[in-house]
Amino acid sequence: MELLCLGLNHRTAPVEVRERFAVGAPQLGEASTHLRELADAAEGVVISTCNRTEFYLAAENAEEAFVRVEKGIAEKNHLDSSATKHFYRKTKSEAARHLCRVVSGLDSMMLGETEIFGQVKQAYSSALEAGATGTVLNKLFQRAFGVGKKVRTETSIQEGSTSVGNVAVDLAEKIFGHLKDSEVMILGAGEMSRITAQSLVSRGARSIFVSNRSFDRAQELAAEMNGKAVRFDDWQSVLTQVDVVISSTGAPHAIVQREHVEQVRRARKYRPLFFIDIAVPRDIDPSVGEIEEVYLYDIDTLEQLATEARTRRQLQIEQCERIIDLELEKLHLPGT
User: Fold this and answer.
1) pTM of the shown model
2) Same domain membership, residue 206 and residue 64
3) 137: containing domain
4) Using CB atoms within 10 A as the burial measure, which of 27, 123, 259, 315 is most buried?
5) Could you say which of 5, 50, 100, 320 is catalytic?
6) Is 320 noted as a catalytic residue in this protein?
7) How many domains does the chain have?
């Protein structure tokens, strides 16, 4: 039995490629089962976040599994074989080490980000519940979660703006000058949106509107922030008054189109409007950014801030790597 990982992330593929391979959280269990069948493998787990999609497998023959999966997912997404150039292949101990680095936040766009731990845990739990895992991947993922906790306990890797949500707010503040007395709309009420909203409140945002397909969830998040919930069918009406829109809905296609903004420009008196799209697939059509007073930033824009944070934390990275090395020495998996 061989351990392997096939994936793509923010370093190997731009957002327009990553969004083609994204898998929604509710579909992760089903996707893991399908992965096993596609690769003719004993075990499989699919991880999908805004910055990566990765396929972990325990298979009899790694090379055959790689070929099957690459071909299968390209066909499923109606892409030609050239799309696979964005994928990286990792096997045995290299694959195990990679997962530990992912869970620890060392492979993230924002070094040390905290969301990735929960996202990987959710992906693993979905695969486990679907019956897609077994001895090899169960042992691997449980060890990786232990490594992630140890890294965060024994190092300072997560100090500062490590979440994509917080960095998005940093960017909005740099562009806008300040967020005090600004009015903000959050599209999507998931964990990323919650963290973003908390950061907005801490920076002095006066009004926060929360819109989500589940109105109950929008009300819940709005209540936490002393904001106002908006039904998803009505979010366009709020565009007339807000200064910043941060979107992370998990929708399979763009929900904010150019015409939505064009329709409110006169009512807004052509005031600047800032969009930060932290969703993959993207929530906001790129043509929105072509409007004169509109500024649109997608998740790849955050790479510059990530680079700055990485420089400050290089010593912490080295300490984290030592922890991972020591923990992997304790892990004895078939094929590693």
Assistant:
1) 0.72
2) no
3) 2-159+315-329
4) 123
5) 50
6) no
7) 2
